[in-house]
Specification:
single chain, alpha/beta, 10 helices, binds S-adenosylmethionine
């Protein structure tokens, strides 16, 4: 993949994710679960990769950790700084790319990413960076969407309606596959621990849920933007398929989004 294609891909990500802030309400409870899963403790140096509006970073800081957050999207970082100010915690948030982390080797005791590093185009590059900045004996932990469940399947549906990504871009839900995660982490880590949890998203109907996601989640937002302009009939078809995908997960005004958590210790 050419450097130019990678740069374009990341610019599209940056544009797509800039309206994500309202979804922080959904990722706030899961942030607490990830911080617990990673055993974050007071005094540790913690990095939240692809931090968005800072939900994981702020939760870790409230435990007493010294935290830094990094994300591609400046609009979300602005909100993260505001969230930290309101929570009265000191966190350094900076714009950056998980594939080129601006930190020295072995800086952090814990490196976290909630539904974040999975969107980097090259998993090997992103993971090598996350492990490089982690101290030996430190903990890497992340939350990801499994390919076979609602969010992984919806990413696949969305991709099917989009032009193909540049060659070499890895499908993000591969980060939700236990066998692939084991292979990627390989001999660089020990003590891998998986856990599953559920994000519960209130919604008045499947269509209300879709409407919310269309206005906030990067890949979906980009697709709807492009089909609205180019092919409204195809957009209607997409929406029918999307609603059918969500329907089995919708009950009692809740959409159930199950996900995977991974934790491992750097050797
Ligand atoms: C689904 S949001 C999750 C945000 C946050 N971690 C949370 O749980 O609320 C995905 C985030 O990944 C960020 N992102 C995507 N590609 C990235 C990259 N290459 N480097 C850093 N951040 C990236 C986006 O800007 C966005 O904030």
């Amino acid at each position: 993949m050419s450097e130019d294609a990678i740069a374009k891909f990341k610019e599209a990500q940056r544009q797509g994710w800039k309206h994500f802030a309202p979804l922080e309400l959904m990722t706030t409870p899961t942030a607490a679960r990830l911080v617990k899963h990673a055993n974050v403790r007071a005094g540790q140096d913690v990095l939240d990769v692809a931090c968005g509006t800072g939900v994981v970073a702020i939760t870790a800081a409230r435990v007493g950790a010294r935290v830094q957050g990094l994300d591609l999207t400046p609009e979300l970082l602005e909100r993260a700084r505001e969230n930290a100010r309101i929570a009265s915690v000191e966190i350094e948030f900076r714009e950056g790319d998980v594939e080129a982390l601006p930190f020295k080797d072995a800086t952090f005791d814990v490196v976290l990413s909630q539904f974040g590093h999975m969107f980097a185009p090259r998993p090997d590059v992103a993971l090598a960076e996350m492990l490089r900045v982690l101290k030996p004996g430190g903990t890497i932990a992340f939350a990801t969407w499994p390919p076979e469940l609602l969010i992984g399947s919806s990413f696949r549906l969305v991709s099917g309606y989009m032009p193909p990504p540049p060659p070499g871009v890895s499908p993000s839900p591969q980060w939700g596959d236990i066998a692939i995660i084991r292979e990627r982490l390989g001999a660089a880590v020990k003590d891998i621990l998986f856990d599953r949890a559920c994000m519960l998203v209130p919604a008045l109907s499947v269509q209300n849920y879709r409407d919310h996601i269309e206005h906030t989640a990067g890949p979906m937002l980009k697709l709807v933007e492009s089909l609205s302009a180019s092919d409204p009939a195809r957009l209607s078809q997409f929406r029918r398929e999307y609603d059918a995908l969500v329907a089995p997960y919708f009950e009692n005004n809740i959409v159930r989004q199950d996900y995977l958590m991974t934790r491992a210790v750097k050797v």
